[in-house]
Every structure is written in C-alpha cells, then in structure tokens.
Amino acid sequence: MASARSSVPIILCGAKVALGQESANFMKPEYEVIHFCASVEAACAEIPRLLSSEDPLPEEANEVGTHNYKEVPKAILFGRTYTDDKLQAVRDACKGKGVISWVVPGEPAASNETIVTGHATKVATNMKNVLDGLCSSGTIGKEGLYKYAF
To answer: In Å, how far are 1, 82, 117 from 11, measured between CA atoms?
Structure first.
C-alpha cells in the first residue's frame, strides 16, 4: 500500500544550525527534512539509529527539521564542510544499517571560505536538483553516492 506522504523524508547535515534551517525551509514541499545533524559526531551517532527506525539521541536534538521519524529517510544530504574524511566516518558508522542515497558536495568548502547571504539557498538548490533527478529516475533511497555542484 502506498504511503500518503507527499514529500520525501531526508536528513540534512551541516555545520551551522541557521544555514540548516534555511536549507530545510527551501526543500519544502517536495522534501521533508526530518532531522539535522550539526556535527560529524552527531551524524555518526544519530543517522545509524534513524536508518534502523529508531529515534535519534535526545541530547543532540535541535530545532531544524520536522522530527517526523515515522518513515526511514530516503537520502542524506551533506553541506560543503563535510570533507571526504568526515563523509567516510559517517558512512562507516552507517554500514549495515540500511540502504540510502548519499548526496555529497562535489567540492568541499575552502577552510577560509566566507558564508555570504544566499549561500544556503544556493547549496540547497543544487542539492534539490540532485534529489529531483533521483526521484525522476526512481533511484531515490537506493544506495549510491551522488554529488552536487557548487
């Protein structure tokens, strides 16, 4: 039986809660950010639980996302502060916990990069374009690493 859900549940990971909130709002209505991880440590602890249909750890909660954990997320989106090493740590923590689409930056942010007005919207637009492609091809929620441009 098909779900009545009209948006695709996703997890967003980034360094700044304010940018996460802006990105989450931009993703609506097609995509529902159900959870936001503001650090690699939080992502490594919480995402495996979410992929296993468990609630995340309460001490790591923030205001970003709907916290609607009724369905397993279909994709995890990472902001540009996630380097290859950080992404690999999260992927390692999630091994064997479920199948998911990994949407990652094609190029990580420079360590001295200044965040300017509109940054979150630009990144979210590029992430959303990747998700749109996954949805139209029927591969959303299937294991794979998908890069977005910046």
So the answer is: 24, 14, 23
The pLDDT tens digits of the residues spanning 98-113 come to 889 999 988 766 655 5
For residue 27, give every residue at least 6 positions away whose Cβ sits within 8 Å of its Cβ, in sequence order, or none: 10, 12, 33, 124, 127, 128
pLDDT tens digits, 12-47: 999 888 889 999 999 999 999 999 999 999 999 999
Tokens 């001295």 found at: 112
HEC profile for the chain? CCCCCCCEEEEEECCCHHHHHHHHHHHCCCEEEEEEECCHHHHHHHHHHHHCCCCCCHHHCCCCCCCCCCCCCCEEEECCCCCHHHHHHHHHHHCCCCCCEEEEECCCCCCCCCCCCCHHHHHHHHHHHHHHHHHHHCCCCCCEEEEECC
Put residue 143 in one of left, alpha, beta given phi > 0 → left and psi -120 to 50 → alpha: beta
| Cα(5)–Cα(101) distance, integer angstroms | 19
Q: Quick one: pLDDT at residue 62?
A: 80
Please give the mean pLDDT across all residues of the chain: 87
